[in-house]
Amino acid sequence: MTPFESLWRAFAQLPEVTAIALGGSRAGGVYDATSDYDLYIYCDALPSEAERRAIIAEHCGYAEIGNAFWELEDDCTLNDGVDIDILYRSLNDFARSISAVVDEGEAATGYTTCMWHNLLRCRVLFDRDGRLEALRRRYAVDYPDELRANIIGKNMRLLTANLPSYDHQIAKAASRGDLVSVNHRTAAYLESYFDVLFALNRLTHPGEKRMASYAREHAGLLPAHFDEDLDTLFSSMFTDADATSRTLARMTDELGGLVDMADRAA
After folding, report:
1. How far apart are CA 216 and CA 201, in angstroms?
2. Residues 6 or more apart whose Cβ sits within 8 Å of residue 261
3. Which of 34, 44, 169, 216 is the most exposed place for a label (fewest CB within 10 A)?
4. What φ, ψ does residue 17 adopt, rounded to 5°?
5. What span, in angstroms and rounded, lies between the C-alpha atoms of 81 and 77?
6. Final residue of a domain: which of 108, 139, 170?
7. Could you list the residue ranges forming a coiled coil in this record (predicted)?
């Protein structure tokens, strides 16, 4: 039995734990030797730190317990040298977050459907009462029209044509030589850009890694200069403000054109 399997099976013995799932690239089978494990521990009550430490100490050579930068997690290195992120979630809270998106059509500014994607694509390792599998069946549905429209409407307005739009903010930051702000706003632009692109194609969002390759592989509607524009954006954003502005304008125009074309065909 591998250190990874031994570890999750030990967690499955805790009475607080209701389900355990593997996410990320290892769940989908697209990973390499450097890929870590994303292990999701769903629980009705958080296992005590002492319980967690005892299990982790047996199976990991290094551990950071109780990191809470995003979700509560223990970040560790297994005894075979592979890193693992152990994330603790309330299954009820997780279900509510997905309902807000899928049932209520709540759009975010980027990454809107990541949790839904996580649910659909995870590999369930343990499910004490079948609640996680039931949740997955509940949301194995077609991409809702309202959600798609809300994501596109909210995020396209952030790309251009409004005072707070990212292209406007990037141009102002570049004009004053504020490269930190250029970097920050360009990252935000891409968050909204990819949220629109995935919603346009009725694809759930895969998360912050491999977005471009995921779009190339799965998106039926892809901007004509997709790869060229990304390359130009990254090579010019700190050195050529005019080229950056032209590239952002073309990216936004081509994406908006695809949205219009899809709407006319609907």
Report:
1. 12
2. 221
3. 34
4. -85, 125
5. 6
6. 139
7. none
- According to DSSP, the residues that pair with 123 across neighbouring strands are 22
Report the number of distinct structural domains present in the chain.
2
Start-to-end C-alpha separation, the chain? 51
Amino acid at 210: R
Asked if residue 169 and residue 108 are part of one domain, the reply reads: no
Rounded Cα–Cα distance for residues 32 and 103 (Å): 36
Residue 113 sits in a domain whose CATH number is: 3.30.460.10
Full domain range(s) for residue 192: 145-265
Same domain, residue pair 8 and 112 = yes
Asked if 172 and 81 sit in the same domain, the reply is no
d(CA 19, CA 118): 14
Q: Looking at the structure, do residues 179 and 89 belong to the same domain, yes or no?
A: no
Phi, psi dihedral angles at 87 (to 5 degrees): -110, 135
The tokens describing 62, both together, are 């290094």
Residue with tokens 């592979």: 82
Tell whether 19 and 135 lie within a shared domain.
yes
User: Are 47 and 152 found together in one domain?
Assistant: no
Query: What's the predicted TM-score (pTM) here?
Result: 0.93
The residue with tokens 């977005």 is: 211
Query: Which residue is it, tokens 């299954």?
Result: 91
Max Cα–Cα distance, the chain, nearest Å = 59
Beta bridge partners of 77: 62, 83
pLDDT by 10-residue block (mean), the chain, 266 residues: 94 97 78 80 95 97 95 95 96 97 98 97 96 98 98 97 93 95 97 98 93 96 97 96 97 97 86
